[in-house]
Specification:
The chain is mostly helical. Helix content is about 80%, strand content about 0%.
Amino acid sequence: MRSSNPIKQLFGQTAVYGLGIVLPRVLNYLLLTPFYTRIFPREEYGIITELYAYVVFLLVILTYGMETGFFRFANEKSDRNAVYSSALTSLFTTSVLFITAVLMFIKPVSAIVGYVNHEEYIRWLALIVAIDAFTAIPFARIRLLNKPAKYAIIRIIEVLVNIGLNGFFLYYCPNRMDSTEWLNTIYNPNIGVGYVLISNLVASIIKLILLSGEIIEAFKGKVDMGLLRKMLKYAYPLLIAGLAGTVNEALDRILLKHLLPIEVGPMAQLGIYGANFKLAVLMTLYVQMFKYAAEPFFFSKSGHKKARNLYADVLRFFMIPGLMVFLVVTLYIDYFKLFIGPDFRDGLDIVPVVLMANLIMGIFFNMSVWYKLTNKTWIGAILVFTGALVTILVNVLFIPSFGYRASAWGHLLCYSIMVVLSYLWSRRIYKIPYNVLRILLYIAIAVMIFGADLSFQQYIPEVAFYFKPIWILLAASFYVYMEREKWKIYRSN
């Protein structure tokens, strides 16, 4: 019998979707990040960091808010097949047009992004992005139908193929090509970093094949052009918001290459920044798995008589695991740093900043429910666009002097401003009773414990290690104690 406790349902779904979201990403993190940062010099890892920053931008453009639009209209319409068929047909059309355009104008496109001598990188990247954009809707349908196991299996297979091919092309082949003659027919050492893209492309193709059953289901519904126009009208502000959001998320990795003085080695600095950014992956994963479960959850509970109180409580319960992730990673950074190569550890001081920035980004996602439910997605576009302006200003003004550290602090400032503006705006249109003082208290406790640990390491390092589990236990006990009454209410439902 399914639990009637909505908070338990949400975080139960979050944990299940974690199999499909977290496990593949953890495998990538545990295997590929240490691998790349040990076989590639800083400059070459900088290439990977930059190219995948473009992927973030392109995926937003090529999905243009249709994922959220699909959830919105699939929950409203009785004919879900029509919603699915219309959305998938739209993404298929735009993905094909994108690939065609890139292949037709490959030389100018390669020149614009600075890879005129490696046009093949751009071709492979375009195919990866197009496939990933197209498959967003089949994956959304799997989520809508509550099939997390299927979602997880496909994602895990995809990442295992990617990891296996990376190991084959970047480790096995270079070490065995002299003794294994047949490898010379399939392996070219001059491709180098390009094998990262080739491995990703093959994995994406296999993912597409595994989703073929979901794609065939689209033929059971008709493409409703009137419905599609409504979906596009709903989604286009989300595209603007998504583009502005990618500025907040990925623009720094593009600007670093162009704004850092040449004498400091911009691509090497970009490699350091990208590697240390990955050390905040646990927070990124937590926020991502929560988002996958929360978006359909928020829409499904919109008719609940106490929906606004529920949304406020969700944010409080969301904060606690996030802050515990912040403390575990920052207090045990000497262990987490082992996941990147020694040449990349100069930037460890940005990890606490990036962790907190990602958590605050999760707060913004929680708060975004008010403008999505009121169909005022244009407000979300304005909020994220404001954050993008902050990101651009901070990076342009401070990267030349402070390098990638300015970019890390830019993330934190950007998301903080977005949260404040969203909260103030929501109070006029769709007021949700967030307990702001308690949320700020929870953040302050985590930051103070982090500061206390730093002080112990500086002044009494011989005992600092033994206090780390005590700090974590104190924080967890405090958070649980503060929410004990609220949790009792939900357990009794």
